[in-house]
């Protein structure tokens, strides 16, 4: 039997996410935006809640196409508010639209969102050496820095805790515990 990180339940969805996505470096803007959107909706909720609704989010938000999301009308916003398959939080839905617009602005300025976000770690993942749950932080100085930088650009729901979870999801930090089969040796 594979030994996984402490947070993984017996849910196949959770196990697959852990085994194939979490902590794997992501450099393409499309996937980066997907995780950014999902992490902002996760704020204050459990990740499994978001994973269980991920395909609903994908359908509701045009396959996470930030170009389309950036142009959402009030009618589309109101449609999303009625969609029981997603998290129907007015501010989070509004932030998805705003964040998509700002995501595009960063692409224009830096060539890609990937260039921008990965520059915070010199384009190399940070491999942490955490042994158990109590070792893994909810925030770091780096997540504080990224949070402040994104907020300064106008992004919403990008607090330090959300940013650290985003960093973990996209592999900027590899926080697989040392006893996990995914820990890099």
TrEMBL record:
InterPro entries: Adenine_glyco, DNA-3mA_glycosylase, DNA_glycosylase, Tag. It catalyses: Hydrolysis of alkylated DNA, releasing 3-methyladenine. It comes from the Bacteria. It holds the Pfam family Adenine_glyco. SUPFAM superfamilies: DNA-glycosylase. The keyword RNA-binding does not apply. Keywords: DNA damage, DNA repair, Glycosidase, Hydrolase, Metal-binding, Zinc. Its EC number is 3.2.2.20. This is DNA-3-methyladenine glycosylase I. It comes from Polaribacter dokdonensis DSW-5.
